[in-house]
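Researcher: Quick sanity check before group meeting.
Model: Go ahead. Protein one:
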Amino acid sequence: MGDLKKELHQLCVNHVRKIMEAAELAIADAQKASTDDTKSSAGDKYETGREMMQQETNRNMAQLNEANKLLVALNRIPVTGVSTVAEPGSVIITNNGNFYLAISAGSLVYEGKTYFAVSPASPIGNMLNGKKAGDEFTVNGKPYKIASVA
């Protein structure tokens, strides 16, 4: 189970790094476009273009900042050890899907099996947190029964 946790953790890190790379690339593109924009006789057009590039840069900076927060959160999650109660870093197997309680990173595939990386703050993550094998809960009218927690 230790390898599974380590691999799912690494897949989450890779997910966050892709977000960071995309944001950094978009910031660089917006800054390049802003500096390449030359002033024309239509001064307002120039100023509008620069303002739009600045807004794009700000939006991507915010996205980069959020990705950094996710990376910090991931670095706090243990990737070794086994717990009997679902907590950040746990792999939870249910009758309606497999979950990795860490960050919201969507579906992750490891050795042909799909695991949903969910944040403890998400509705399903909130329901999973603190549960153990045999516990049952319902999310959006869908019943879940926990088969195992590791």
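Researcher: Fine. The other one?
Model: Protein two, sequence then structure:
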Amino acid sequence: MKQNALILVRGGGDLATGTIHRLWSAGLRVLVLETAHPAAIRRQVSLCEAVYEGETTVEGLRAVRIDTLEQAPTVWAQNAVPVLIDPAGSCVAQAKPDVLVDAILAKKNLGTTRDMAPLTIALGPGFTAGQDVDVVVETKRGHRLGRIIREGAAIPNTGIPGVIGGYGKERVIHAQTEGIFQDVRKIGDLVEAGEIIAQIRTPEGKSFPITTQIGGILRGLLRSGYPVTPGFKVADVDPRREELSNCFLISDKSRCIAGSVLELVCAQLWN
């Protein structure tokens, strides 16, 4: 296997974090590129929180925000993962990654091209394998989750969340109006249906309450102070009340996808 191979991952949300954690656990060097204002709601398991906090830790993996690519080796020497604010991927040519993984999960291609690395991988819909990237990994829950696609695309985005504990769209909460998001409850709190968990301060100065549709554990919640628009995802309720630890653990879905990425990376580096 190539020594000191570099895997560049665009995105540091919860699904991306599962892949980053798996690659790091396998002893690979990983560089994460993020936006200046990440919008993850499962913040306890999203390495992009390092952008705001300077550093964060998920299941033993420490991520550290860096300001320049030249600072990355110092972080790698600490057995940590560097996170660089570079949403456009401007550093890719200089970094010369062996593998690039687009894990932004934007449901569309935000600028990843096949010439960015010897192997390019995209997670989820919005990419065509063999055109935009070399390989696509399926991200939709179900029988095809984690499947490696070498020709064609992933299942198109349905806009309907996967079912957990018998609930799908009911467990995910979206903003109903424009404004600044302000939390009322915290990730890990037990909530009941109809409970106010946050509010949106509208441009007119009014307060618009955000309520739950089902009871359970507040597994995901947008960071306070984030500007939102109608339809913006702001929270996630897990109906499985007995599984509080899930708020702080990488999900089964994320780990399944991560296994497929690691398989592709290992095959590339061994060859």
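Researcher: One line on it for the slide.
Model: The radius of gyration is 19 Å.
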